[in-house]
């Protein structure tokens, strides 16, 4: 019985997995925080890019063609 308890106490594989899990959770929280902070400015950037592409597409569609 004591051998089993000593073996379990020395086994650190579970502790290492928990540490990696905590690091992954911290990275996820930091990423979510950064995305939330940048969310408004990213929305503006993509909206402007979308509008510019729409304008360019309309201009290209309405441009006169030069048949040869």
Automatic annotation (TrEMBL):
Record field: transmembrane: 20-42
InterPro entries according to UniProt: Flp_Fap
A matching Pfam family: Flp_Fap
Keywords: Membrane, Transmembrane, Transmembrane helix
Designated name of the protein: Flp family type IVb pilin
């Amino acid at each position: 019985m004591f051998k089993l308890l000593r073996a379990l106490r020395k086994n650190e594989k579970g502790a290492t997995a928990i540490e990696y899990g905590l690091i992954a959770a911290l990275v996820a929280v930091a990423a979510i925080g950064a995305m939330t902070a940048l969310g408004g400015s990213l929305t503006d950037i993509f909206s402007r890019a979308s509008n510019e592409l729409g304008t360019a597409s309309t201009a290209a569609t309405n441009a006169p063609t030069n048949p040869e």
